[in-house]
Amino acid sequence: MVVRIRLSRFGCKNKPFYRVMAANSRSPRDGKHLEILGYYNPLPGQDGGKRMGLNFERVKYWLSVGAQPSEPVQRILFRAGLLPPPPMVAMGRKGGPRDMHPVDPMTGRFLNVEKPATAN
């Protein structure tokens, strides 16, 4: 049984809300799952940030036993700091380059990564 960490869609029409869950790769998107690992709300809140919450211990467990994250979940886990950046093979895809900025998982805002000062 191959386990995938993927998103399951909830919410109304034009107002999506996703749960991050571990599921068998053969089960349907919104079907049977093994465990709910968190949530992701792509719509901006009142502060303008996207909301997400993850159970880091359980996500690390599922990754350690061989669960494969889907591409959207891989980006979410990168922003949360659990995975290295995904490969840059999608630069020519529709929609432009991938968003590679790390995001704080609690607030949904971009983290300010200070660049080292170069001596000239």
Automatic annotation (TrEMBL):
This one is known as 30S ribosomal protein S16-2, chloroplastic/mitochondrial
Alphabetized UniProt keyword annotations: Chloroplast, Plastid, Ribonucleoprotein, Ribosomal protein, Transit peptide
Q: Which domain of life is it from?
A: Eukaryota
Keyword Isomerase set for record? no
Q: Which GO terms describe its molecular function?
A: structural constituent of ribosome
Family membership: Belongs to the bacterial ribosomal protein bS16 family.
BP GO terms, sorted: mitochondrial translation
This protein's GO cellular component annotations are: chloroplast; mitochondrion; small ribosomal subunit
Q: Where in the cell is it found?
A: Plastid, Chloroplast
Region feature (Disordered): 89-108
